[in-house]
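Raw record, unedited: Heme peroxidase
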Amino acid sequence: MAARFTPAFRAAAGVRVAARRQVVPAFRRGFANEAPKSGSSNGLLIGGLAAAAAAAGGAYYFLATDATPKERLMELETVGKEAGEVAKATLHMKKGKDEYQKVYNKIADMLEVDDYDDGSLGPVFIRLAWHSSGTYNKEDNSGGSNYATMRFKPESEHGANNGLKIAREHLEKVKQEFPWISYGDLWTLAGVCAVQEAQGPKVPWRPGRVDGYDHHCTPDGRLPDGAKAQDHLRDIFYRMGFNDQEIVALSGAHAMGRCHTDRSGFDGPWTFSPTTFTNDYFKLLFDEKWSWRKWNGPAQFTDSKTKSLMMLPSDMSLTKDKEFKKHAKAYANDADLFFKDFANVFNKLIELGVPTAQFQGDAYTLKTVDEQSS
C-alpha cells in the first residue's frame, strides 16, 4: 500500500532535505573531497552525527502524518540506513575501490548474451541506470537514484520502464553474490560498466545510495517521452536541473540499443552499431536524410537510404531547435568533446537525489576488463 502523502508530509520532506543539506556544506571538506586529517576524527564524527540527526528529524515529521504503522516503521528503517551511510562516509568505513571493481567485473562478465537483442545487455543496463535516476525533481528533492524505487509497483509498471525488468532480473544475480551493495549503487554501477565496456568514456562513480520502500515511488510522467519535441525535453530535464548542453549530451546515449514495439511502441536501432558507444548518433542525425516511416506504429523517422535505422521526434528536435542543434553539431564533429561531456553529465544524472553526505570522498574511476588484463 502506498503512503498517503499529505501536504504536511510534503512540507516535512522539504524540511528534512533542507536540514540535511544545511549540515553537508559545513562538513564537506571533512569527508567529501579530502582525506581526513590527523586528529580530525572527532570533528568528522560530530559532522556525521549531525547529518544523521537531520535525517532523523525527517522521520519525526513523517510520523506526524497519517501514514500507517507499517509505513512509519519502513521510513524509520530508511532513515537509519541513510544515517548509517553518512556515518560510514564520515569515518571512511565504506568498502574500498577494489571491492567495487569486483562488482564491476561481475557485471562486465554478463554483458554479452547471444539471445538478447544485438548480443549485449549493455544498452538495457544504461537505460536502467538512466530511468532509475531521471525521476528526480529539484523543487522537492524527490526521486533520483537514492531509493531504487523501480523495484516496486507502480513505478516498475510505468510505461517508460517497460522492459527494464530484464535488466533488474539479470542484476539480481550480482546482488546475490554481493548482498552488501545497495540496488541504487548496483544499478548505477551497471550503467557505468555498460558505457565503459562498450568503448565509451570513463565515467566517475561513487557509492552511497540506500534502498527505500514503495512509499518513496515517484509519480508517472517524470521521464522523457520520445514522441514529443524540444519543449517537452526542456520541461523534463530542467526539472532535474540540467541545461540545454547537458540535455543534448545525455541524448547521445541513444548511440546504444534499440526501441521495441512491445515496450515503447517504437521500433529499430538509432545507429548501425547499437552495442558500441560512439558519437554516430549525432553524425547520423545530420548526415542521413530522414523521413516519416510509413507503418501502423507511432510516428517515428526512418533513414531514407537503408530504412533500417530510426529516430524519434524527440531526437529530431535536436536538429531543429537552435540551441540544441548547436551542441548536437559540435558532438557530431568532435567525438572527444562528446565523450568528455557525456561522462560529466551521466555522473551528474546517476547522483541525483543522493545527499552528498552519503558519499565517501572522490568518485572512483573503475578499470575496464581490457585495462585490467593488459
